[in-house]
Amino acid sequence: MSDSKPPPYGSSEPEPQPHWGSAYPPPPGAGHPGYPPPGYYPYGPPPKHPNATTAMVLGIVAVAGGVICYLPLLIAPFAWFTGSKAVRDIDEGGGAQGGRGEAVAGKVLGIVGTALLALALAAIAFVVVLSVTIDGFWDDVS
Question: What are phi and psi of 72, to 5 degrees?
Fold first, then answer.
């Protein structure tokens, strides 16, 4: 070790920085002085993506409402689309946005709701085809 004294107070000499070959790791964000590393938020988690909660709520309304009455199933494809776009944006952001779990939940619920919508439309089409092709399909059998 060398016997170096710290620079006197008020001097303009820069503080010695450790070099890459030293035994100590470089400080965080050493490549960009004055800027934190990407995805670093000192006061908590990163802000949520604006469409993450929207996708989750659309998915919940589509599936839960679709079980009660079939009309809310019509918004399931929108939940799927919104959730997929939010997940893609969050993954491309490199940690700058949060809410990935909510976006994935909206995407999955949108997929489930879209599958239920397809089954409901297939059942309606099946009943329509039967009612057109079979004479007396709607007649009472008493």
Answer: -65, -15
Interval 52-96: pLDDT, tens: 999 999 999 999 998 888 889 999 999 999 999 999 999 998 878
Query: Burial letters for 63-81: b for 16+ Cβ neighbours within 10 Å, e otherwise?
Result: bebbeeeeebbebbbbbbb
What number of residues does the chain have? 142
SS3 of the chain: the string is CCCCCCCCCCCCCCCCCCCCCCCCCCCCCCCCCCCCCCCCCCCCCCCECCCHHHHHHHHHHHHHHHHHCCHHHHHHHHHHHHHHHHHHHHHHCCCCCECHHHHHHHHHHHHHHHHHHHHHHHHHHHHHHHHHHCCCCCCCCC
